[in-house]
Write a structure and sequence with these properties.
Elements (H helix, E strand, L loop, with lengths): L9 E2 L4 E3 L13 E2 L2 E2 L4 H6 L13 H12 L3 H4 E7 L9 E7 L5 E8 L4 E9 L7 H7 L22 E3 L15 H5 L26 H9 L15 E10 L10 E12 L3 E12 L5 E12 L15
Antiparallel strand pairs: 1-2, 2-6, 3-4, 5-8, 5-10, 6-7, 7-8, 9-11, 10-13, 11-12, 12-13
Length: 316
């Protein structure tokens, strides 16, 4: 049976596991929604104060998967959880490295992804279920200040749930305007390849068929969102500020149909953003059997929303 990952990992004396330096790619330069480009497009991002198109946050989750497997073995790809707060954008051409600090609790560890200059891209926790303990975003949700004076999110009702819909990721099919590439395309540039991700090699892995990388579980949960009844006011540009992918009875498989529903669980904000926290539940097709949950804080940039008082006349 082949190794799930060939990623070189250094175990330091202080209990820290360190992965190699990698150069992730921005595969969302052509992303569009609601008729406009996204924060991953150089021109759009620069108008909003970024130096260029940002690399999507869950791209860095691939750096963490081999470290999780190093600690917990193949079970991590079936019952693992990555829970992170994104702290700084990353741009194509920059190198990043994942680090895990082991704790006394055998179920969880602290994680970071850093740039060469020491800037922290993300910070959070990595854990193994079924009992993950308190994750990084579990804690963060308890500390949120309620969002006051909503404009972009004025029509959102907390506790509301979208109707269930079917989702599936085929190996060679692009995932639409939000994700204009396929899993096959992604595997040409993924920072940590695995035979478990490719139907051509997956038969020799524990699950005998191809599974979704953590970063592509994010795509599975998000690619239909533009067609769902979530009343965010537009036009507006958003970015991922916090994200958790929690496998309960995984892994998730390529070519298998699942059903998802979303619940609006919190709203928060900052000087520059209004944030909507959504939990996406992933079920087996036709059942109430929960296989994964995806927690996302989508932060909408006030400067991209026409007429926002602090940014009067701004447009994304």
């Amino acid at each position: 049976m082949p190794l799930l990952f060939k990623t070189p990992i250094e175990a330091k004396p202080d209990g820290v596991l360190v992965g190699p330096w990698r150069s992730p790619r921005n595969m969302l330069t052509a992303q569009s929604y609601d008729g406009h480009k996204s924060i991953h497009d150089d021109d759009t991002a620069s108008k909003l104060g970024f130096r260029g198109g940002t690399i999507e946050g869950p791209t860095h989750f691939s750096l963490l998967a081999p470290l999780g497997v190093r600690i917990w073995g193949e079970d991590f790809l079936a019952r693992g959880c990555i829970s992170a707060h994104y702290r700084a954008p990353c741009f194509e051409g920059e190198e990043t490295q994942a680090q895990i600090r082991l704790e006394r609790d055998p179920r969880r560890a602290e994680v970071q992804v850093l740039k060469r200059d020491g800037v922290e891209v993300l910070r959070g926790t990595i854990s193994l279920g079924p009992d993950h303990g308190q994750t990084s975003l579990d804690l963060r949700l308890t500390e949120l200040e309620p969002l006051q004076d909503r404009r972009i999110l004025a029509d959102i009702r907390l506790g509301s749930t979208t109707p269930r819909r079917q989702v599936v990721m085929e190996f060679a099919r692009p995932m639409g305007a939000l994700y204009p590439f396929s899993l096959r395309d992604k595997l040409q540039s993924i920072t940590e390849p695995s035979p478990a991700y490719d139907p051509a090699t997956a038969s020799e892995t524990p699950w005998k068929k191809a599974i979704l990388p953590f970063e592509m579980i994010s795509v599975l949960g998000q690619y239909t969102i533009a067609d769902e009844p979530i009343p965010v006011r537009n036009p507006v540009v958003g970015l991922f500020a916090d994200q958790e992918i929690r496998l309960i009875d995984g892994p998730l498989f390529v070519g298998q149909t699942y059903e998802i529903e979303r619940t609006m669980i919190a709203m928060s904000g900052s000087r520059r953003t209004e944030s909507l926290w959504m939990r996406t539940s992933v079920f087996r097709e036709g059942e109430d059997h929960l296989v994964a949950t995806l927690l996302l804080n989508q932060a909408y940039l006030k400067a991209s929303f026409p007429g926002y008082p602090e940014y009067e006349g701004a447009s994304g």
